[in-house]
Each structure stands twice: as structure tokens, then as C-alpha cells.
């Protein structure tokens, strides 16, 4: 297959610019918020609460968001999502104004940050399903795997640069002006998006009752062994392997590397994932996908344990880099499974379930990491999470021989014949 097939479509290139700008802004914003909150509280549990504040609305609205996405035009819905994020970013820019600390109590600022993060959870519940659905309307089915790889690679590249710039910008220009940069990138995404025309609504059941729609979506996901297996495996791994939520603690109190070292640590997993994803455009991962996914998540768990025990900066960076590389394999395989096996009229609902299983488990994992760090200590909490990841993969491999034998080549060949 042509490794640049998806890039030959102009609208897809514009879409990648939109996605890059949004992920860059969102990932940078999360890091800046983490730094500010921990600086205010010096409490690892406060980092977990950031995740909890986002995951509660994201999960509670996910299924309803999927129904709405399947019923509405995708481009304009994405415009609303990005505009909402821009408003939240501007609010955080105001809250980070240095003069505010002189007139407001730190607890008031902290709770205001939590409130904006909470509102961001509602935006996120719509953002993921809308983006997932829009890709399928831009490129033909036969290049879905290639498009998914480039889209995921763009996501990872933005995840590399966003956290890295966040760490350096905190040191160079401070939290306040870092939030201004984030706001600027969200506006850039909005400008690019208007260059993509509106798309047709593929769902033939417009006006379908909400609960019937949700029931059909859940029935499809839980009835498809490949989709359900991939989502469950990643959810548990991310939930218990969420060591990145504790990076401010490692940077400030364990490794003593400051904000710049924090940026390097936060970017290391995304650098590894980006290299994996760019390589996968030349060497596809769809053959023996089940075995590759299991091995990748197992390796991820080992990396988390090594990171948790490390007191050396260079070893911690390597462990996080490799964790990102193997996590990139997991992400590509999961996205390929979702794109290939999801019918057009259910993309919003399936993507919403995916966000509940995997996307929101990042924030829930952050809460789990913060809570266990408070109860067990930071190092013990990270090692515990890595061990739970290894146990999950082992149990899945033993209990689901069908998933071990999963191979996506047949599905890809069928899509090529259809086109």
C-alpha cells in the first residue's frame, strides 16, 4: 500500500492541521494546569483530582454525545467543540494572571481551575467522536488504515511538542503567557477547520429515539469481540499505568530536574510513540494484530515498573520513551480495528464508547495514580500500576484465544474490493 495514500487528499491534510493544533493546545494546557495546581498545593492527590474533574462529565455525557454526533453534521459540530475549548483556555489564561494571587485565595483559584477543567470534560465528550467520524467522510474506505495511522501520528507529534513546549515555556515566560500560547493555537485550529466544507450525514435513522440509539450502539460494541477486546485491554492498561500523572512529583521531588526536566519527561512517551507511528506507515501492523497488541501492552507495563523504580533521570527518560513506542503500536492497532469494523452510521456512538473505555481512563488513571500515591507513596503507586497492567494482559491472553488470533488483513482486502 502507498504509505502516503491519505496525504494525497487535500481535505485530509487540512484535517491533520486542525488535529495537530487542537491536540497541541490541549496537551500543553493539561501540563501547564498540572504544574500550576501542584505548585499551589504540593499535594499529589490534587493532580488526581484534575483527572477526576475531566473524566466525570466526559463519561457521563459520552453515550449521549455519540448519539448527537451520529445525528448531526460533523464539520459544524467540530467548530462548536473547538470554540468551547477556546473559551475555556481564555478562562485559564485569566486565572493564571500573576496579580490574581494577590487578590484571590489560592483555594479559590484552585477550585476555579477545577471548574474549567470540568467544563472541558463536556467538550471532550463530543470532540473525540466528531473527529473519528469526520475522518471517514474525508477519505475512501480502502485507505482507512493509512488515514488512521497518519491521524494517530499527528496526534502523537502534537503530544510530543505540546508537553515539551509547556515545560520550557513555564520556565521561559511563566504559566500566564503559556496559557496565551494555548489560546492562540485553539484559534488557529478554528481557522483551518473552516477550509473543510460541510459533510453529509450518513445515519439513515435521523430522529431515532435517544435510548434506542444508545442501546444499538452498546449492543454493537459489546457484540464485536475485536472491538470490545481491544477497548477493554487498553482501558485497564491505561487505568493502572497512568504514571505520567505523577510526573510533576517525580520532576520536583524525586529526580529534582525542574520544569525543563519535567517537559522532557512528559514528552518522552510521545516521542517514542511518534517514531513508532511514522514507522508503521512503511511497515503496517494489521497482520497478527491480536498478538502484537498483547505484546505491546505487556511491554508497556514493564516500562512503567522501570520508571517507577528509577532514581536516574536518563533511565526514567528511556523507560518513558520505550513505553510510548509500544503504546504507539497499541494505539495504531486499536484505531485500525475501530475504523475497519465500525459501520458509518454508528461511528459517533462507537467512538463515544471508545472514549469511555480508553480516552477517559487516562483521567481516571490520573485519579487512581494520585490516590494510590497519597495512600502508598509515589514510587509504590507507579510500580503497583505497572504490575496490574502485566496481570491484565496475561489474563486476557489466556482467557481470549480468539483475540490472540485476530488478523485484520482479510478486512482490509474486503474494503479494497468494495472501493
UniProtKB/TrEMBL annotation:
Write one Pfam family the protein is assigned to. Answer: MFS_1
Which species is this record about?
A: Flagellimonas aurea
SUPFAM superfamilies in alphabetical order: MFS general substrate transporter
What name goes with this protein? MFS transporter
| Keyword Chaperone found | no
Q: Which PANTHER family match?
A: ENTEROBACTIN EXPORTER ENTS (PTHR23513:SF9), INTEGRAL MEMBRANE EFFLUX PROTEIN-RELATED (PTHR23513)
Where in the sequence is the signal peptide annotated? none
Q: Which InterPro entries match?
A: MFS, MFS_trans_sf
Localization of this protein: Cell membrane
What are the record keywords, sorted? Cell membrane, Membrane, Transmembrane, Transmembrane helix, Transport
Q: How does it sit in the membrane?
A: Multi-pass membrane protein
Q: Membrane-crossing residues? A: 12-33, 45-65, 77-97, 109-138, 150-170, 176-196, 227-251, 263-281, 293-322, 375-399
Give yes or no: UniProt keyword Repeat: no
Amino acid at each position: 500500500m502507498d504509505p502516503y495514500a491519505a496525504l494525497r487528499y487535500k481535505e485530509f491534510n487540512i484535517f491533520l492541521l486542525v488535529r495537530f493544533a487542537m491536540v497541541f493546545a490541549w496537551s500543553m494546557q493539561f501540563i501547564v494546569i498540572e504544574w500550576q495546581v501542584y505548585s499551589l498545593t504540593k499535594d499529589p492527590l490534587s493532580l488526581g483530582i484534575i483527572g477526576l474533574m475531566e473524566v466525570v462529565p466526559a463519561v457521563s455525557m459520552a453515550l449521549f454525545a455519540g448519539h448527537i454526533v451520529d445525528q448531526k453534521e460533523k464539520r459544524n459540530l467540530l467548530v462548536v467543540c473547538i470554540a468551547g475549548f477556546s473559551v475555556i483556555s481564555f478562562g485559564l489564561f485569566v486565572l493564571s494572571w500573576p496579580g490574581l494571587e494577590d487578590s484571590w485565595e489560592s483555594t479559590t483559584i484552585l477550585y476555579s481551575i477545577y471548574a474549567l477543567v470540568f467544563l472541558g470534560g463536556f467538550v471532550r465528550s463530543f470532540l473525540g467522536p466528531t473527529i473519528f467520524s469526520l475522518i471517514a467522510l474525508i477519505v475512501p474506505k480502502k485507505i482507512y488504515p493509512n488515514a488512521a495511522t497518519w491521524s494517530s501520528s499527528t496526534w502523537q507529534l502534537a503530544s510530543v511538542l505540546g508537553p515539551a513546549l509547556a515545560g520550557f515555556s513555564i520556565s521561559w515566560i511563566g504559566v500566564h503567557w503559556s496559557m496565551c500560547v494555548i489560546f492562540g493555537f485553539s484559534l488557529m485550529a478554528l481557522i483551518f477547520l473552516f477550509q473543510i466544507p460541510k459533510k453529509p450525514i450518513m445515519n439513515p435513522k435521523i430522529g431515532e429515539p435517544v435510548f434506542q440509539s444508545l442501546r444499538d450502539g452498546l449492543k454493537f460494541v459489546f457484540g464485536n469481540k475485536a472491538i470490545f477486546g481491544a477497548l477493554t485491554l487498553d482501558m485497564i492498561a491505561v487505568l493502572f499505568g497512568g504514571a505520567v500523572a505523577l510526573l510533576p512529583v517525580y520532576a520536583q521531588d524525586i529526580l529534582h530536574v525542574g520544569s525543563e526536566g519535567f517537559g522532557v519527561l512528559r514528552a518522552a512517551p510521545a516521542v517514542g510513540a511518534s517514531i513508532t507511528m511514522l514507522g508503521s506507515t512503511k511497515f503496517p501492523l494489521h497482520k497478527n494484530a491480536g498478538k502484537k497488541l498483547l505484546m505491546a501492552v505487556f511491554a508497556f507495563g514493564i516500562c512503567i515498573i522501570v520508571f517507577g523504580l528509577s532514581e536516574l533521570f536518563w533511565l526514567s527518560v528511556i523507560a518513558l520513551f520505550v513505553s510510548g513506542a509500544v503504546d504507539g503500536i497499541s494505539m495504531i492497532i486499536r484505531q485500525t480495528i475501530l475504523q475497519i469494523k465500525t459501520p458509518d452510521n454508528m461511528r459517533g456512538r462507537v467512538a463515544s464508547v471508545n472514549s469511555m473505555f480508553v480516552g477517559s481512563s487516562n483521567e481516571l488513571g490520573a485519579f487512581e495514580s494520585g490516590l494510590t500515591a497519597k495512600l502508598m507513596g509515589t514510587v509504590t503507586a507507579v510500580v503497583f500500576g505497572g504490575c496490574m497492567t502485566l496481570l491484565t494482559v496475561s489474563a486476557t491472553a489466556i482467557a481470549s484465544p480468539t483475540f490472540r488470533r485476530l488478523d485484520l488483513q482479510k478486512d482490509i482486502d474486503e474494503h479494497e474490493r468494495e472501493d
